[in-house]
Amino acid sequence: NTEHTISGLLPNTSYTVGVRAYTIAGPGEWTDETAMTFDIPMVEDFQVTRISDTTVRVTWQQIESDAVDRYTVYYYSTSEVKRQVDSGSMNFSASVSEGVIDELDPNLEYIFSITVTFILGGIEYEGMQIVPIVPS
After folding, report:
1. Which of 129, 95, 92, 128 shows the shortest CA–CA distance to 112?
2. Alpha carbon distances (Å) from 75 to 13, 35, 96, 123, 125
3. pTM for this entry
4. pLDDT for 3-37, tens place per residue?
């Protein structure tokens, strides 16, 4: 067999793979090839717009790839004065580029970020979160 699949590798990581033959005369010389795993792009043009005291609209530029499974918007807030913390996340289908997050606490200021999740070879890879933003 001259093929082998290695799964579970980390995205955005370089690997060097070596192969050598074994014969009656013993092992052959190593060959090596450097390969880079799939580069997960960051979501671009992410915007958060306040609709009401408890609701925001989030929009982003879709990533063109059949491997995209979903987008996840994360949000969090802390209030030292009220000793209150609120955080959560919401998943959105790969086919959409906007959504609404509601039931936020009207007394807190939230920060939002977004990631994209790809499925490759049955394994999920979540990209890096973009720099968090405050709604406009």
Report:
1. 129
2. 28, 35, 19, 25, 20
3. 0.71
4. 777 777 776 677 778 888 888 998 888 887 766 66
- CA neighbor of 119 nearest in space, from 48, 75, 65: 65
CA distances from 78 to 28, 87, 115, 124, 132 (A): 61, 9, 21, 30, 14
Residue pLDDT, tens place only, 32-67 = 776 666 667 889 999 999 999 999 999 999 998 888
Q: Which residues lie closer than 8 Å to 90 by C-beta, 6 or more apart?
A: 72, 73, 99, 101
CA distance 65 to 34: 24
Q: Which residue's entry shows tokens 């580069």?
A: 39
Tokens of 31: 């060959």
Strand order, beta sheet including 111-120: 84-93, 68-79, 111-120, 123-126
Q: What is the Cα Rg of the chain in Å?
A: 22
Residues belonging to the chain: 136
Strand partners, 70: 93, 117
